[in-house]
């Protein structure tokens, strides 16, 4: 059973591939839209499948499914889905709106990197939310990694500066930076993200840097709006899609990949420390139906 059986059941279980008529393509298009892939992606994928079915004389259900998998996988395969951890230290800035699971995702990723033999340092850059640093410290303990934190209300830039200095002194391999949740349409908070990026560039000019946007899979098309704004401000290198265990949607990843050319790097599939999986486009699409 694939990781995305829920998607497959919800999207394509009702679909019949027996008759490739206009009704079939209309229903396919509707299924894709309901899965939050967006109107443009749904129309394009359906039209490409229609042409491929005609040009390649696809007749069987397996042939049609295979063609659709290829079309959707191609839309997801943008950029490099692997993390760039080529320097010591490398820095991963984790951003997103409130409530999407940033701190949890950092804890899970720290656990995975530690398992891979990396020396990981967490930076408690969310100094606004009550007990945010405490929550991150709990995850640091679970993952068995170090953490740099200050008191609630401290300047996030100062915390980041201390964390980067500690990483250099301790010869850490990876610094994972937590940030306060912020609305993508609040200019002052978005400017703070740009400030954090500048600190990283100044203190570690040659370091490999990732900026991961954490998105809640259940937010649908609003996720694309968030991604547009965060990319403009912080220069996204990847997406972490959370809460896939609680939705039959998640197609927003295709829309984001297509429009912004930003790859999905991880997917969250539960609350456990091991419930974070590297994103695999072919596996994702192959498990849809």
Automatic annotation (TrEMBL):
Keywords assigned: Cell membrane, Cytoplasm, GTP-binding, Hydrolase, Membrane, Nucleotide-binding, Receptor
UniProt KW Nucleotide-binding keyword: yes
EC number: 3.6.5.4
Top-level enzyme category: hydrolase
Subunit structure: Part of the signal recognition particle protein translocation system, which is composed of SRP and FtsY.
Family designation: Belongs to the GTP-binding SRP family. FtsY subfamily.
Listed name of the protein: Signal recognition particle receptor FtsY
Annotated organism of origin: Brotocaccenecus cirricatena
